[in-house]
Amino acid sequence: MVEQLAKFAGAMRGHGIRVGLGDEIDAATALTLVDLLDRHEVHRGLRIALKVPRDAWATFDRLFDEHWGGTAAPERPVPRQALPRDHRGPLQWQWDGERVRLAAAEPARSGDDEPGYSAEALLRRKPFDQLSARELAAMERLLARLALRLAARRSRRLIPTGGRGVVDLRRSFRHALGTEGELLCLARRERALEEPRLVLLYDTSGSMDPYTRLHLTFAFALRRVMRRIEIFTFNTALTRVTPQMALAKIPRSLERLAADVPDWSGGTRIGSCLAEFVATYQDRMVSRNTTVVLVSDGLDLGDTALLERAMRALRARAGTVVWLNPLLGDPRYEPTAAGMRAALPHVDRFSPAHDFESLERSLRFLR
Q1: pLDDT in tens, 140-163
Q2: 278 inside domain
Q3: Averaged pLDDT of the chain
Q4: What is the CATH number of the domain that holds 246?
Q5: Is 59 inside any structural domain?
Q6: Is the pLDDT of residue 74 over 70?
Q7: Do 276 and 184 share a structural domain?
Q8: 104 Cβ partners below 8 Å, 6+ apart?
Q9: Are residues 223 and 352 in the same domain?
Q10: pLDDT tens digits for 130-142?
């Protein structure tokens, strides 16, 4: 069917009818929506999908009879010509929900319109637990770019710079006092780079297995571009893994972490792990300028009263406490688990972390 459609479109181009590759893709889609045994319906569907102008209808009808009449179309010498420039832009690999296919991209839109679908746009919305092996590699590259954005975020505060920036008239005039009022050079200022202070605590219990790899991949990417960051994992025990977050290959480092971290992919005792963090690390790692991020589904098998006390102590000292829960991406989810209920009153921001877009939205809270 596709081969026949391609020959038909080529014949139309040979007779002066403009048909782009995007139009052929639309026509192939149309053939899946009509009754292929109804000749009239196929004729109308193709004419609409291929956007045949009214003055070319007679030529289209003749070519349709030749190519779709049930007999072999007569061989005619067709001059070679390039495909007309498609009005919808270059081809892109796109995910249609079942497979990746080559399709013409939608034109760029202005204003607040929703952007056209592309492979990356669809990947950004795909839950982490549904990614294929190839998509995992693409997602790791997206997460590395996201970490770089966080590390290079600009503050509203302006600082002196020797490069390009906005003119600082006050400092320029002050410097001019040494040259008898001559403005030999202009002083400039630019927005300072923010350097967030982060403490990340990742749940590596069995219930978090579908998300652990990509969450820790994001932690690896952050470790590469940020200096003031501490990373911990917890399940039934708390482990500081900042030193293990080396610049080695991520899969190899994850395998090493899985081997070194006690009870990896096991149970969860969030309360006792957070209590250990508060007692051992909080005084030297957490201040009013620190954002503490917990990534967990909140399914705790331990003492919820201990969890509540640890969260209260953490909230009293940290600047911001953010809890990222992958289950929150499901609109049916309600935080009814005992551990999650105990922690929520002491959380500044409760957000999903099931796909790339949810992580991206959380960036503005990691100040």
Answers
A1: 888 878 877 766 555 566 778 777
A2: yes
A3: 80
A4: 3.40.50.410
A5: yes
A6: no
A7: no
A8: 20, 21, 22, 25, 86, 88, 89, 90, 91, 92
A9: yes
A10: 888 788 888 888 8
Residue type, 352: P
Q: Does the residue 124 lie in any domain? A: no
Percentage of the chain with pLDDT > 90? 22
Number of structural domains the chain divides into: 3
Q: Name the least confident of 69-78, 188-197, 285-294.
A: 69-78
Q: What are the pLDDT digits (tens) for 223-253?
A: 877 778 899 999 999 999 988 876 556 677 7
Give the per-residue pLDDT at 143. Answer: 84
Domain extent, residue 37, equals 1-107
Q: Are residues 341 and 272 in the same domain?
A: yes
* Structural domain ending residue among the three candidates 193, 213, 240: 193
Q: What's the pLDDT at 100?
A: 46
Q: Tell me whether residue 133 is in a domain.
A: no
**Which among 193, 217, 246 is the end of a domain?**
193
Q: Are residues 76 and 167 in the same domain?
A: no
Residues 221, 181 within the same domain? no
Is the full-model pTM beyond 0.90?
no
User: Distance between CA atoms of 234 and 275, rounded to whole angstroms?
Assistant: 11
Instruction: Return d(Cα 199, Cα 215) in angstroms, integer.
Output: 14
SS (H, E, C) the chain: CHHHHHHHHHHHHHCCCCCCHHHHHHHHHHHCCCCCCCHHHHHHHHHHHCCCCHHHHHHHHHHHHHHHCCCCCCCCCCCCCCCCCCCCCCEEEEECCCCEEEEECCCCCCCCCCCCCCHHHHHHHCCHHHCCHHHHHHHHHHHHHHHHHHHCCEEEEEEEECCCCEECHHHHHHHHHHHCCCCCCCCEEEEEECCCEEEEEEECCHHHHHHHHHHHHHHHHHHHHCCCEEEEEECCCEEECCCCCCCCCHHHHHHHHHHHCCCCCCCCCHHHHHHHHHHHCHHHHCCCCEEEEEECCCCCCCCHHHHHHHHHHHHHHCCEEEEEEHHHHCCCCCCCCHHHHHHHHHCCEEEECCCHHHHHHHHHHCC
Question: Is 350 in the same domain as 228?
Answer: yes
